[in-house]
Amino acid sequence: MTPPKGPYPTPRIIAMANQKGGVGKTTTTINLGACLAEQGYRVLLIDLDPQGNASTGLGLNTREMETSVYDVLLHQTPMEDCLEPTAVKNLFVVPSNLDLAGAEIELVPAMGRETRLKNAIEPILEQFDYVLIDCPPSLGLLTVNGLTAAHEVIVPIQCQYYALEGLGQLLRNVDLVSKNLNPGLGVSRIICTMFDTRTKLSSDVVSEVREHFGDKVCQTVIPHTVRIAEAPSHGKPITTFDPSSAGARAYRAVALEVSGGEAQRAG
What we know:
The protein is α/β, with parallel strands linked by helices. The chain has helices spanning 25-38, 53-56, 69-74, 103-107, 116-121, 141-149, 167-180, 200-213, 226-230, 238-241, 246-259, 261-266; strands at 12-16, 43-47, 84-85, 91-94, 130-134, 152-158, 187-193. It is 38% helix and 13% strand. Helix 1 packs across helix 11 (246-259).
């Protein structure tokens, strides 16, 4: 399958970031990656979260991994040696595990600590159209590595009360990284997740997010469904777990928006 030609140059490195936990960040990273792969793009997902949920959510057993992103960051193991295929064609993972939990402290005295991930990606970048970095729900050195390596940032926001809480600090950090480490970095997209059609609150939150961020907010919202929540426990993205579900359709639409497919089709 030949991927659609959108208006964006590839390869694109995208940091998926939000320091609030429970916003659907990892779920969105997995499913966005799977949908882009389904479009025909070659996609690399880098699991930068010590919990390793993006790795297990794609069916990998992190306890059996000989190498992980920890080795890439701390021991400068070539990223090529850590690539793991998934059951989804065109989708690959650099996995994480609990070893990464100590990396924040271990990186402090390391030379070039903020650019370790960026330097590791460069030798393999031409193999992929998209690199998605699942940042941890914090603003520490791991997230700084993700932001320094990225061309752009996508922020998932849950359609719940306090959705915008803490977002200002994330945006300030993105700005700091842009000024000091990665010129031009900015938020390219905001994805509203966990939209509950039964409540007025979800609609109000989406309206508030659109009021703040305008065209950066994806037109498609991700519904709050049991099937999306169930998929990671089966080690599958929603697109293979339940391909015809509302969640799968929504993530496919978001992937088209991210890749520029909507813009191409509208034009």
